[in-house]
Amino acid sequence: MSVPSLASFQGIQANAAPQFVGIFLVWALFGVLSTQTYLYFKTFSNDRIFLKTLVYTVYTLQMAQTILLTRAEWKVFVTGFGDLDSLGEVWAAWIALCVIGGIVTFLVQLFYAYRIYVLSQNAFVSGIITLASQLFDLFH
């Protein structure tokens, strides 16, 4: 394998820096989520099984997303070190960001709509909010 010339690395910061900083932010936010999940289960141990299952499901999906993103960045920065083409590869990031992110967003928005229904006792308002949020996500 030949060593790339210094001229071929021009602009590498513009391509690599956002991915590099992004994975640190993903892990920092996952740490915050882990702390929140721990405190939820410790503080609200008497909540209904539905709420506990929802929290655990969202946490598990976020863990899978973090693992997939870390694996993709490992392939870019470790396995593909020196290969400028690896900066443009998608790997498994599309599953983590699009599919898992969409499922988590859907679950959380449905929970918020449920809470609005419980507080307002108005199914119409809750339905409109759910429809609007799903349409926004669809066209966003």
UniProtKB/TrEMBL annotation:
Keywords assigned by UniProt, alphabetized: Membrane, Transmembrane, Transmembrane helix
Domain of life assignment: Eukaryota
Transmembrane segments: 20-41, 53-71, 91-114
Protein name (Swiss-Prot/TrEMBL): Uncharacterized protein
Organism: Pholiota conissans
